[in-house]
Every structure is written in C-alpha cells, then in structure tokens.
Amino acid sequence: MDAFFASCEIARNPQLRGLPVIIGTGARAVVSAASYEARAFGVNSAMPLSAARRRCPQGVFLPVDMAYYRSVSAQVFEIFEEVTPFIEKVSVDEGYLDVSGALSAWSGGPEQMGAWIRQQVHDRLGITCSVGIASNKLIAKLASTTAKPDGMLIIPKARNAEFIQVMPLRSVPGIGPAMEKSLAAWGCTTVAQLARLSEDDLLHATGSRVEAERLWRAARGQDDRRVVVSAPEKSVGYERTFDVDHTTLGPVDALVRMCCEEVASRLRARELVGRTVNVKIRYSDLRYVSRARSLGRPLDTAADIYPTAHELLCDILAVGTDAPGPTRLFQPVRLAGVSVSSLESAHGAAYQPTFEDLLEQEDAETNPSHIRSQSEVRAKTGEAEKAIDDIRRRFGKGSVGFGLRGE
Fold first, then answer.
1. Predicted local distance difference test score (pLDDT) of residue 297
2. Is the full-model pTM beyond 0.70?
3. Catalytic residue annotation
4. Smallest Cα–Cα separation from 20: which of 30, 28, 3, 118?
5. CA-CA distance, 344 to 262, in Å (whole number)?
6. Residue 93 annotated as lining a ligand binding site
C-alpha cells in the first residue's frame, strides 16, 4: 500500500488531499506514516516528530488510529482473496500473493491480475497500492518498491539479476548500516559489485557462512522462499514512549502495567493465549534492554501477565520487587513495553496446573469452606477483564481501568 496510514486518513477526509499529512502526535513520538506531499519536505517514517515539525511546519499532524487502519487492511486483503487464497500477510499494508494456481482463470496473466487489484483497491477504498510481479519474493518486493507510488512493475525471470544489480546496495534485505560498512571495506558499494564477490569473500566480509550464501544468491536475484499462507503471529506486544524521561520506578511500573492491559486485550480479541512474557526498556541514551520468562500456563489476562512483567522490570532496573514507587533508577527510562509470545489458540490451549494449584485443590477437597483457589480467582478475573473489553469498545480505552497491584 502507498503511504497506507496517511492514505486511509485522506480517504475518510478528502479535504486533506494534496496536503502534507503526517501520522503521529506527541512531543516525543515518531512519524508512523507520511503522505508523498509530506515526503517532499524530507519527512519519512520513523523520524522523530520534532524533526518532522521542523521540516514541515505546515503539515497536518494526525494521531494513529490503528483500529481504522486494520479495518481498511482487512478490506484490502479481501480483494486479494478474490484472486487467490495463497496469501502471506507481511504486515497491515503489505503481502505476497502466489498466483501460480490462478493463472488459468485470467487470460491476461499476472499483469491483468495486478491491474485488477490496483483498480479494485482504488475504486472500493479510495486508496492506492503498488504491485511488483516477479518469479520470487525478493524481486517482487523490490519491483513493488520501485513502482511506488500507484504503479506496477513486471520483472521477467530471465532479468532478475540484471534488475537487482542496478538497485542500491541497501535495497537488499539484511544490508543495514553495519553490513554496508563491512562490505564497503571490501570495495563493495553497489549490488553489481556485490555480485562480483565470491562466497569466500562474503564469508570474510560478513563473518557468517549463512549470510554469505544469502547475499551471494540475492546479488543474482535468487530467492527460494515460499509464500507462507496464514503464518501465525509470533508475539503480541505494546510499548509507549514517555513524554519525558523518568528516573523513578513508579511511572515506569505504571506504564508496564498499562501495557499488560493492552496486550491482554489484544490477545483476547485474537482469541490467543501465550506462555512467555517479555519486558523491554529503552533508556535515555536509546539503549534497549529486555528480559523474558516462560510460564507453565497460558496467559490472556493482565492480572496474570503483570506480576511476571513487574518482576522482569525490577530485574532490568536492578530494584527489589517490593521497592516503592519513588525508588530512584540508575538511568532515566525513555520507553517501556511488554509482549507475550509462545502463542496458541485460546480454544485448544492445554492448562498445566501449578504446584500451588494442586495444593489448593487438595485443600479445597478437605476443607470446602476454604477461600477460593487461585484458578477460581483467575477465572473470575478473566470474566472481569472481558467485561472491561466490552466497556472500552463502547466508551473508549480510557473509560475504565483494572486495578492490579496494591490499588
């Protein structure tokens, strides 16, 4: 999709057409998307909003509305499904389609398919997309990027190597600043020069046999990756950047708690559970630190996720788990986030009782009047959080919260 978030906003508010639209708000946030009019001022995705405002003070800055963008994305992929069911969704605005099995139904071949998709997306949704058609995923991706905005490019298989060897070196997936510097030390600054290096040269340049082989093949336009249909989500996460760096535990812990609520809500919306909790912290010097812990039971409530997230946070920040909120930190914290991985369907998840659960079950059998077991508490908590989901859908995310620890 072309400048997807910005295009969605323009589609629902046509008065924005032709204006430099920038998606992202907040003093310390980054640009999530920029219309092509904004890009003319040097505004790009992932740029700090402060820099975007300096470059384009006349820009129209709008908040991110992921619920709306996902709804438009779902409609886009429904159009793709009218061509083929073999779709790999890479992100909310990008996917690969294996159309080999659908060729017989289209007299005009892949070119007709690509043109039809572009036309339908435009006519039904009022936004544009760019299509790359090729014999493998690497070349198709580069072709779609080259065709932007609102274009289509077909690369015949026999010309894969010729096409990629006129592309910038950084266009090859996996070549970032560090790799680019390593290759430059070998006199390699273009894909054409990359293609002239042997695998042994690339091994010395990269330090990895696997990476050397991958780059050797990429420089020749070769890619044997298949289109993976319905690839499962690997994790569900949420993170936020503070408006100002924080030097005490309280605000950071509060943000982690809020992230747990958001992650739990997203898990339930996708009917997923997870078994591994990960906490990520970004300090004021932009350094990241993360910790993860796998648990024996499936999780989809903030009440279950937060205790582990709190312990991981305290481990990262080197403070005790019972430390008070005003506890000062060794370094200011800029960002905090939580994710849950090791995902599976909530309907088929097997629950392994903990040792404490077994003891509580035995106690309940011998003393029926005993206080409810932890498993019963978790069940009640899950029902409460689902009720909160319903309230937030009706009245907004800030309408109600859930007390998790000492509140």
1. 84
2. no
3. 94
4. 3
5. 18
6. yes
